[in-house]
């Protein structure tokens, strides 16, 4: 039976024909049969004595069926027949699609989830001899780890804690893949599918939550508006009361100033009047003033009320003026008598004090 296999050596492709008989066991390894293994162990180059290893690749060489060494990138020499390139490992970062799988969350919800795994080979020897199919092993490990991690979380936390879930996945995979010489760099969840009924209930929950938030926001807005209105009324009343207070204070101050001004004006007028009365012909001037006021008072009679009380000698102006002047004269005499009494008391006080002192001295002697 004739099979044609394409090999990759360096940057070029070598095409070799291998004749395999039914009785011969010198065939292509069984790992070549899967595309997954062709990704992890690139097509094996032939031993042409002089080999050029590409950058970021590691070629595992066996001598007489036993591990011999790992070829570094660049020029390498091998012994024909005895040496053979058994594995070709890529040291680049490898991306693996983790197939979709079903898992049950902590609250018994069945989920369909898939992801992407990013790996890198750190030890080509362990990757070649530590596991039969590295990609299959890592994929199965990622699926089982994902089911285990999802069983610890509820449905809501699965959507909220995707980053922590990815970190837990990377940590769990690295613990198991250390013996394989493989390092998991990161794991990313692609899609999470939930059952239709659960999806509908989640949609209803989201709508209810949005309505709740809208109601709460509306009530908070109403409360804030009421508070603002009450605060505005309070400030308005405070300002109005302060305005009334200031107005009353200003009015009282004005009235006080007016009373003081009137009192000062009246005192000044009285003082001027008294000075005028002490001068020559002051009594005649006072009589004239009383007569004028009497006449002006009669002119205002019966303007505010119909009931009027009049003396019997209303028409006798001279008698009224004489009576007013007599009252003024009696008041003046009373005032002068009070002034003389006060002056006499002031002059007698030193005399009394002198007598008291003399009597005290006589008693001491």
TrEMBL record:
One of its GO terms (biological process) is mitochondrion organization. Keywords: Coiled coil, Mitochondrion. Residues 341-365 are annotated as: Disordered. InterPro entries: Band7/mec-2_domain, Band_7, Band_7/SPFH_dom_sf, STML2-like_C, Stomatin_HflK_fam. One of its GO terms (cellular component) is mitochondrial inner membrane. It is found in: Mitochondrion inner membrane. Mitochondrial protein that probably regulates the biogenesis and the activity of mitochondria. Stimulates cardiolipin biosynthesis, binds cardiolipin-enriched membranes where it recruits and stabilizes some proteins including prohibitin and may therefore act in the organization of functional microdomains in mitochondrial membranes. Through regulation of the mitochondrial function may play a role into several biological processes including cell migration, cell proliferation, T-cell activation, calcium homeostasis and cellular response to stress. PANTHER family: STOMATIN-LIKE PROTEIN 2, MITOCHONDRIAL. This is Stomatin-like protein 2, mitochondrial. It comes from Cyprinus carpio carpio.
């Amino acid at each position: 039976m004739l099979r044609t296999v394409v090999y990759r050596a360096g940057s070029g492709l070598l095409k070799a024909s291998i004749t395999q008989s039914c009785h011969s066991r010198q065939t292509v390894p069984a790992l070549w049969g899967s595309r997954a293994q062709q990704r992890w162990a690139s097509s094996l180059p032939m031993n042409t004595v002089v080999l050029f290893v590409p950058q970021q690749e590691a070629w595992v060489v066996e001598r007489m069926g036993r591990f011999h060494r790992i070829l570094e990138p660049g020029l390498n020499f091998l012994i024909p027949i005895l040496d053979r390139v058994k594995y070709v490992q890529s040291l680049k970062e490898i991306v693996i699609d983790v197939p979709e799988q079903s898992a049950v969350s902590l609250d018994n919800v069945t989920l369909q989830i898939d992801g992407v795994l990013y790996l890198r080979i750190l030890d080509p020897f362990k990757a070649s001899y530590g596991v039969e199919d590295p990609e299959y092993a890592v994929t199965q490990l990622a699926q089982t780890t994902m089911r285990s991690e999802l069983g610890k979380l509820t449905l809501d936390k699965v959507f909220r804690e995707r980053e922590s879930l990815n970190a837990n996945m990377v940590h769990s995979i690295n613990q198991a893949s250390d013996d394989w010489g493989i390092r998991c760099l990161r794991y990313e969840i692609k899609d999470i599918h939930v059952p239709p009924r659960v999806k509908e209930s989640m949609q209803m929950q989201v709508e209810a939550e949005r309505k709740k938030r809208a109601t709460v926001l509306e009530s908070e807005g109403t409360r804030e508006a009421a508070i603002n209105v009450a605060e505005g009324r309070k400030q308005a009343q405070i300002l109005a009361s302060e305005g009334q207070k200031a107005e009353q204070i200003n009015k009282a101050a004005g009235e006080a100033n007016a009373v003081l001004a009137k009192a000062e004006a009246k005192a000044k007028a009285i003082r001027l009047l008294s000075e005028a009365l002490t001068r020559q012909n002051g009594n005649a001037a006072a009589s004239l003033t009383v007569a004028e006021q009497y006449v002006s008072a009669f002119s205002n009679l019966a303007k505010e009320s119909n009931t009027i009380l009049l003396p019997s000698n209303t028409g006798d102006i001279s008698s009224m003026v004489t009576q007013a002047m007599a009252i003024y004269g009696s008041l003046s005499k009373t005032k002068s008598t009070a002034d003389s009494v006060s002056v006499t008391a002031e002059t007698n006080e030193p005399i009394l004090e002198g007598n008291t002192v003399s009597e005290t001295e006589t008693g001491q002697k």
